[in-house]
# Entry
Amino acid sequence: QVQLVESGGGLVQPGGSLRLACATSGSIFNFSAMGWYRQGPREERELVASISSGGFIYYSDSVKGRFAISRDNAKNLVYLQMNSLKPEDTGLYLCNNPVAPSMWGQGTQVTVSS
# Structure
């Protein structure tokens, strides 16, 4: 069973930046797509960014131009660089494989507020 551990969240003012990291276990990481999700107060989850094993990248319209996803296959890590943060970016951020999801981790909370 793949384990997912997210980190890097926090409280930031509008316009600020954060870098999230997702650590994964499991030898199939190199062959798996990975994505970052944002969970709102009603526990709805939105896929905001994903990266395939071959490097194909997707961004939702809400974050395009502000967020950047990347992966380090040698370290089994996925990153989400978040710039120009807005209050509507507030939420619990989780990572997972969008094609074949594993058990969800605890996530990391991002709060954008002045």
Remarks:
- The beta strands are 4-7, 10-12, 18-24, 34-39, 45-51, 57-59, 67-72, 77-82, 91-96, 108-112.
- Residues 20 and 93 are 9 Å apart (CA to CA).
- The chain has a mean pLDDT of 93.
- The first strand starts at residue 4 and ends at 7.
